[in-house]
Amino acid sequence: MRSIKTKLLSLGVAAAMLLALAGCNISTPSSVGTIGGVDIPAGVYLLAQYNAYNTASGLADLATGETANDVKAVLKAECTGTIGDEEVTATGAEYVEKLTLRAIEYYAAVEAKFAELGATLEDAATSEVASSVDSMWESNGELYEANGIGKSSLEAYLLNAQKASTIMNLLYGPDGSTPVTEAEYTDFLNNSCYYIESVQIPLVDYSTYTMADDDQKTKILEIAAQCEEELKENASGETSDMTVLYTAASEYVPQAMETLGATMENASEAIYYAGAQLYTPDDLAGYGTDEYNNLTDPLDEAGMNQWTTIDLGTTILVARRVDPLKSYTEEQLTSMYDLLTALKSDELQDQFYADGAAMEHALDEGAMKTYSASKIKKNV
Q1: Helix, coil or strand: residue 303
Q2: For residue range 329-344, what is the model confidence (pLDDT) as tens digits?
Q3: What is the CA radius of gyration of the chain?
Q4: Which of 261, 286, 316, 377 has CA 20 to 30 A from 364's CA?
Q5: DSSP string, 103-138
Q6: Nearest CA to 28 among 178, 148, 123?
Q7: Partners of 35 in the beta sheet?
Q8: DSSP 234-278
C-alpha cells in the first residue's frame, strides 16, 4: 500500500502542500479548538484538510470518468492506504478526517515542544518564511482569499516547520541535549547511505527531448562500456581524483550526444555529467521498489569500489560505491549533506505524531463541520 508518511520537517514539502489550495469561503470561526492547549487556527486546519484530500483523492477507487477534482465522488469512494503504521480502508471522507486530525496533532505537538524548550527562531528562519509567504501570496493570493485563508495562516504553517527543525537541533545537534555521536553518524554512513562516484552517459537529447532509439541505445551502451573500462584502469583506488572522472566525462559524453544527433556547444559542459555524491535513504528510495532498487542492487552486486554500468532509463550510469570516510571526515559530511536531518527526522516526526495524539483534545465539532471537506473546491 502507498504510505502517506511525509517529512513535515522540510520547509520545501510544507510549501508544496500550499500551492494548490482550495476550501470554503468563510471567515468564522477563527479556530477549531485546541490540542494540548495549543490553538488550532482555522487556516491551519484548512491547509491540513486540503492536503489530506489530495492524498485521499490519489487513493480513491473512482468510477470511470470520475477524477480527483470530483470532490463528492472522492469523499464517497473507498480509499485504502497507510496512515502511520496502520493500513486503513475507509470512505474518502473518513480518510480525509483521519489524516487531517493527524496533521493538526503534529502541528500542536511541535508548538508545545517548542514552547517547552523555550526555543526561539533565528532571524534567518523567520526571514525565509516571510519571503516564502510573500512569494506564495503574490502567486496565489486571490485563491487563498477566496478560500478564507489569510497570510497569517500561511505564516503559522511554515513557521511550524521551522520550529520542528529547530527542535531537532536542540535535541540532537552538536550542542543538543542528546547529540548524535560520531559512532552513530559513522554507522549511518556505512550501513544506510551510499557514496557514489559516477559518469552519466545520456540517453536523451534534451534539446529536443528525444529518447535514444534501439540502434542509438546499443551504440551508447558500447560507449558506456568503454568509459567503464577506462575508469577501471584509471580510478581503481578507494577514492578517485575527480580529474579522472571529469576526463572520462569529457571524452565519452560528447560521443553519446553525437550518437543522439546532438552536440555540446562547449565541451567543458561534459564535466557536469561526472561527480561524487552521498545518497541518503530518502534519496535511494526514489530508484526502485521494496523488491528491487535500480541503483543500489547493481552496485551491491558489483561490490565496493568496483565500477559497473547501470541503465536508469534516461541515462547510463557508469558508477561505483566507495567509502565516503576515505575522502571526508564525519564532520565535513554532516555539514555538506545535513546528516542530522537524514538520520533523525523520521524518528522525531514519529514522536511528534505520537505526542500530538496523546494530548488532550478540546476540538470544536461545530467549527470543524463548518469547514467540512465537502465544501472543498478545486477551482475558483
Answers
A1: coil
A2: 988 998 899 999 999 9
A3: 25
A4: 377
A5: HHHHHHHHHHHHHHTT----HHHHHHHHHHHHHHHH
A6: 148
A7: 38, 361
A8: H--SSS--HHHHHHHHHHHHHHHHHHTT---SSGGGGGGGEEEEE
